[in-house]
Amino acid sequence: MEGTMLGPYFVEEQIGQTRWGPVYRAMQTAVNRPVALKILSPGEKEDPGKVNRFLASARQAAQHSYDGVVAVYEVGTASGVHYCAMELMDGPPLREFLRKTDGLARGHADERRLLQMISEMAATLDALWKNKVPHQPPLEANLLANKAGHVKMINIHPAERPASQSAEQDMETLGVLVATLANEVGTVSQRVGAFVERLMDTQGRKRFRSLAEVASAAEALERQMFPVVVPKKTAAALAPAKRHLSPMVVAIGVTALVVMMVLIGWMVWKLKREISPAKSQRPADAGTMVAVPAGAFIYQSGERKTLNTFYIDRYEVTFGEYKKFVDASLRVYVKEHPFAPRNKVHAPANWEQIVEAIRTRTPLNNAWVTWDSPVFGVDWFDAWAYATWRGKRLPTEEEWEKAARGTDGRPFPWGKEFKNVCGWAGGDQLFRWNSVYQFPDDKSPYGAIGMAGGVSEWTDTSTRESAVIRGGNWASTNLAVTVRMATNTREWRSDRVGFRCVSDKNVKPPAP
Questions:
Q1: What is the model's pTM?
Q2: pLDDT (tens digit per residue) in 378-413
Q3: Burial of 473 (0-12, 13-18, 19+ CB in 10 A)
Q4: Which domains does the chain carry?
Q5: 394: closest CA among 287, 501, 503?
């Protein structure tokens, strides 16, 4: 599956294997987040019982959120493949994680990491018991490390395996695990060895009374054995003797500093104004719709189709227009599609960062974005809800194509390659999210702007699982209106996909 899209995830490489099937490193493209993607093997999905257990186990794990438990982000099905997206634990195997390899210490266990692991695991297990969460004892197969130096539990309670019976059992199992790992990776000091022996001693007088006490004791021992070194000679002790300056010298220095700061501030402000996008200059026809008269037209397949008169947005929906919808959806109920996810949030991906970039006039991911840029990072359900809120709807694929190509099936509305006319693509990537009003020559026969450039657009042509996207975008090598893509989920989001609306009647633009 490497190099393919599975729902909202781009699959990169296989990193493991479980009893359910392979595990891949993948990227959740909408939020640019790396994940571990656990897949149910094709052979297993033929058994409904195994499918149900796979999904139930993942959903059960997703209900619990603890610092020491690997997070489950999503459980889903795409293109007939059942998957579970989890937090990516990108550290080495546990034995390598605990092996000390620096210089003369080779052959010794990394006692600091050993104590940190004991403290983290004990605190996690204590939280699971306090919240009455069934879980397995801490076994090596269920512990993963990350590059940040932390160890977390995974698969805390698969249905096929017995759960831990008591906190004492967890303490003893944790002690046996640590002792086994320490013996495998190297030697430990007498103090750490005594601590581990006490951890395993569930019957003697010196045993720990609780997992919380284990966590505190391991943390205290770590501080004792690895104290923070504070330099004896501080910067103040090494500083030269103070010299007293005359009031006149101080005044001159302060004045010079103020003048320099004002000058630097003015230069930064001037440079920012010169290179950043201009403030919104909405044309008089912003928010209007154009009429597409009834009649036959040549579809891209070559067949002739007939549509009734309809109206389509002259411009793609902008961030400024979409923000009004987001604000409204937070205050009042907006109509949702019957198949939309429960508790749907309609803010685009990375919404807070986008708003901040627009307000401060700073680049977002090395590109300018303004309130007049076409909205992106919205899925099909977002676009449907916005269109309904505005008293409109999404265009069908046929309506979109007729509005873009006219009646004669021309491949480009202007008769030649548009990227050589207006420069949507192939230019400075800093300006890839230009204003929807910036390229009036990207005009269809009916006067719709930006149906080849800007962003690709959602259409209403869809099934329960997928939807069709039409038109080129800023990243296309050929900005053709003939571009067509069917997604495998209607919840897919991209910085290259937005939308515009249609209606059976001319809907007047809202007040600015």
A1: 0.48
A2: 999 999 999 999 999 999 999 999 999 888 877 665
A3: buried
A4: 5-87 (3.30.200.20), 94-225 (1.10.510.10), 289-503 (3.90.1580.10)
A5: 501
